[in-house]
C-alpha cells in the first residue's frame, strides 16, 4: 500500500533534473480523484509556477505537499497559492542500542501480545475505523469520513497480508483489542513502526504501551538499531507514549493539500 512516501532532501527542488510532482496511482484509484504530490519540501516562485503547469497538464484534482516547517518562504508561498494546511507531521526516532528495553516487565498479565492471524482482520479493521480521526485525511473536508474509514481499514488489512513485516496484536479475553505494525529496512539498520490502533473500550489502560514495548523487542531481536515512527503534531497521546520509550524528534514538517476542483 502506498502511503506518505516523501523525498529526503531539504534542498530546493531542481526542476532541470526531474518533474516537480509525482502522480499517485494508488491514492488516485482509492479516492477516485487524480492525486499527486510535490517532490520537494521547499518552494520558490519558479517552482510554484512549474507545479501549476504540471498539475494543469496532468489534470490533478488534489496535490499533497509536505513542507519544511522552518522555511519561511515556503510557508508564505504555500499559503499565497491556496495550499490548505491539514497536518503537522512529526518524525521520531529511537536508538535501540542505547535503550535498555526493560518495558515488558510492566505488562498487564491479562493481555496477550502475539503475531496477527487471518481471523483477526475484521476485528482489527473495526479498531482502525475509529483510531485515526486526527490524521490529515479526516482533517480535510474534501475526503468523506466514510472513505477515510475505509482507507485505514484497507491499510491494516494490507499490513496483515504482507505490507508490514509483522503485525502484533494485543488480545484480551481472547479478543483483539489493539495492534501495531512493524517494517524492517532493507539494510536491517533502521526500521519503522507503522500503524498503532487500540480499541476505544481499553484506551488509557496501557495497551498501547505494551504494543510499542513488544514491537521494540521484536525489532531488536531482528538486529535493528534505529526505529522511526511518524505521528501527528495534534496527537498528544501518541507523542507522550513514544516519549516514554526515549523516542526523540527527528523532523517536523507541515502537510498541505491543494484542491483544484
Q: What's the helix and strand layout?
A:
Layout: E1 21-23, H1 25-31, E2 35-38, H2 45-57, E3 62-68, H3 72-80, E4 84-95, E5 111-115, H4 121-128, H5 136-139, H6 145-163, E6 166-172, E7 175-184, E8 190-198, H7 207-221, E9 226-232, H8 236-244, E10 248-259
Parallel strand pairs: 2-3, 8-9
Antiparallel strand pairs: 1-2, 3-10, 4-9, 4-10, 5-6, 6-7, 7-8
Helix pairs in contact: 4-6
How would you describe this protein?
The protein is of the alpha+beta class. It has two domains: 81 residues, no CATH class; 160 residues, Gcn5-related N-acetyltransferase (GNAT) (Aminopeptidase), CATH 3.40.630. The protein is 32% helix and 29% strand. The protein is built from eight helices and ten strands. It is globular and about 60 Å long.
A few lines on this structure:
The chain has 261 residues and is an alpha+beta fold.
CATH superfamily descriptor of the largest domain: Gcn5-related N-acetyltransferase (GNAT)
Q: Indicate the CATH architecture of the largest domain.
A: 3-Layer(aba) Sandwich
The first-level CATH class name of the largest domain:
Alpha Beta
**How far apart are the first and last residues' alpha carbons, in Å?**
26 Å
Number of domains: 2
Tally the helices: what do you get? 8
Query: Any idea what the shape is?
Result: globular
Weakly predicted, low-confidence segments: 1-16
Beta percentage is: 25-35%
CATH topology of the largest domain: Aminopeptidase
What average pLDDT do the residues reach? 90
**Radius of gyration, whole Å:** 19 Å
Number of strands: 10
Structural class assignment: alpha+beta
Percent of residues in helices comes to: 25-40%
Q: Characterize the largest beta sheet: strand count, sense, and whether it forms a barrel.
A: 10 strands, mixed
Strand neighbour order, sheet with most strands: 1-2-3-10-4-9-8-7-6-5
Helix and strand run = EHEHEHEEHHHEEEHEHE
